[in-house]
Amino acid sequence: MSRAEPSPRRILIIVENLPVPFDRRVWCEATSLRKAGYEVSVICPKGRGHTESYECLDGIHIYRHPMPVEARGIAAYLIEYPVALFWETWLAIKVAWKRGFDVIHGCNPPDLIFLIGLLFKLGGKRFVFDHHDVNPELYEAKFGRRDFFWHLLRLVEYLTFKTASISIATNESYREIAITRGRMPANRVFVVRSGPNLERVRSRPADPAWRRGRRYSVGYVGVIGQSEGIDLLLQSIGHIVHDLGRTDIQFNIAGTGPEWNAVVRLCEEMQLSNYVNFTGAIADEALFTMLSTADVCVNPDRVTPMNDISTMNKIMEYMALGRPIVQFEVREGRRSALDASLYAAKNDPQDFAGKIITLIDNPSLRQTMGAFGRSRVERELSWTHEEPKLLAAYEALFARKLPWQSRAPRATATAERSTSQASGVNANAAAGRASR
């Protein structure tokens, strides 16, 4: 009689700040786990272009919930987080009933998903913390203070690490935080970088329409938020256009976020609307055509404790497309890009503008830097190199016994030793068998 095939291990991924598959890291993780034989479900918010409450894409079951507000201030966060937590909990119960899961894979921000993980751990489920953002540093960058809410974020960060069976860090800086602040054993913290999937992130033929009749173009893709420094980028563009008189460069900014309306108004006030095109959220084909057309790509993330230790997806995608980069001097940004980027002085828009002009006026340097970045991604940083690390983390997770499981072998071993002693078997031999 043939033995029945074992049922697949089931993963439930919960992410709050971006819809899936728009969240590219989460989508890479989900598709890799599915390809490896896991059954994968995802809970995420609805967003532009991703408004269906349920759909199945590439065999991955995606459950989306409404978001009442896209938070900017503390009061708005006090609305967003509880509402999102309610929907995530309700949908987790729904997935548990309809499909089942063995693991909750929680992606921050915020660091509240551990509450759902803790609830289901009582039923024997495992909790994986996928550490996307350092929230205490993010709060300090946004509000400039270490008050009650900052200390509260430190507490929930610690509780998240304590709840997690394993933690996945996006770089070595985050791994160090897991070990020091989170007090997780080093062998339970795995680094899985946000490498681009080269099947998706690939060059397209340049389309002159993105230059809007100008000779050069500069591209940006990312969240339009406070810490992303789009206001600093606009100051740099103002210096290029108004002070240096360079009207031969078109700037294209792709993405959306809580600061969208504010930066569009600022662009109009600075009389730059003729030189800056805000695309909003756009499909991959248009996005990568725009970036492939760009002579330079930029990352204006302002230098903060959070940005200094965070790895930005946009940097990896620029490198995958062979584009030279300008960014401010941030630690992890330099570790990722190395010689694929020029680095402006801390939060200095004029120096940032100068670095853009340096590249615009030096095509051979652009080509050298772009080729270096593309080669670095192919050799070291693409998702092809990160996928085995994710799967190894999950193998370690399932190899590690849960507390209620680990008690049984010890009891069995004790019984075996007692039986061996009663039978006159050598005690040292019995102990040796129990320890292997």
From TrEMBL:
Matching Pfam families: Glyco_trans_1_4, Glyco_transf_4
Alphabetized InterPro entries for the sequence: Glyco_trans_4-like_N (IPR028098), Glycosyltransferase_grp1 (IPR050194)
Glycosyltransferase subfamily 4-like N-terminal domain ranges (all copies): 30-200
Start-end of Polar residues biased regions: 415-426
Region (Disordered): 409-436
Protein name from the UniProt record: Glycosyltransferase family 4 protein
Organism: Bradyrhizobium quebecense
Source species taxonomy: Bacteria, Pseudomonadati, Pseudomonadota, Alphaproteobacteria, Hyphomicrobiales
